[in-house]
């Protein structure tokens, strides 16, 4: 599997979304339904197996900041009306591409890229726990359980 190059359709459990607005790093594009992390400065970036990233959830809406500077939440009354932010859902069970060993339910799911998880990675950035197999080459991960 590989990182996203376009917005993706992703199966997920029916749940009450818990939205988190995150300022987006300059020069970055986050696709719809991408695993989303924050860097050391708190800016949203696509999920990756990169030291220092913190998993946040799955992007509910895409955001293209490839021509922008590091985002801010701005000073608007409602943070969802702010500039250069991405809306991330921090809850639910989501279907992700799987690489490597087949997991068992309850195993930790580590981020490979913004589309892919594995049972083991170099930097062990955990997005959640595996719950059940999905369509071929994919597994469901509960991102509430980190």
Keywords summarizing the entry:
146 residues, mainly beta, five-stranded mixed β-barrel, 0% helix
Report on this model:
The protein is mostly beta strands. The protein is globular and about 40 Å long. Strands 1-7-5-3-4 form a five-stranded antiparallel β-sheet, with no helix packed on it. A five-stranded mixed β-barrel has the order 8-10-9-11-12. It has no helices and twelve strands.
Mean pLDDT: 89
Residues in helix, %: under 10%
Q: Approximately how much beta-strand content do the residues carry?
A: 35-45%
Q: Spell the H/E element sequence.
A: EEEEEEEEEEEE
Number of helices: 0
Instruction: Count every beta strand, where a strand is a DSSP E run of 2 or more residues.
Output: 12
Poorly predicted runs: none
Principal-axis shape equals globular
SSE order and pairing:
Elements: E1 19-23, E2 28-30, E3 35-38, E4 44-46, E5 54-59, E6 63-65, E7 85-89, E8 93-98, E9 108-111, E10 116-118, E11 126-133, E12 138-142
Parallel strand pairs: 8-10
Antiparallel strand pairs: 1-7, 2-6, 3-4, 3-5, 5-7, 8-12, 9-10, 9-11, 11-12
Question: What is shown here, in short?
Answer:
Helices cover 0% and strands 38% of the residues. It is mainly β.
């Amino acid at each position: 599997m590989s990182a996203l190059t376009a917005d993706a359709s992703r199966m997920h459990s029916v749940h009450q979304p818990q939205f988190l607005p995150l300022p987006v790093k300059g020069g970055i594009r986050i696709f719809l339904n991408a695993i989303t992390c924050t860097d050391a400065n708190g800016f949203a970036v696509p999920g990756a197996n990169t030291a220092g990233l913190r998993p946040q959830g799955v992007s509910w809406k895409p955001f293209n900041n490839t021509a922008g500077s590091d985002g801010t939440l701005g000073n608007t009354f409602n943070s969802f009306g702010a500039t250069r932010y991405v809306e991330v859902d921090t809850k639910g069970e989501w279907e992700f591409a799987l690489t490597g060993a087949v997991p068992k339910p309850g195993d930790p799911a580590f981020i490979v890229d913004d589309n892919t998880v594995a049972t083991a990675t170099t930097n062990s950035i955990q997005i959640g726990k595996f719950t059940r197999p999905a369509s071929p080459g994919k597994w469901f991960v509960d991102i509430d359980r980190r």
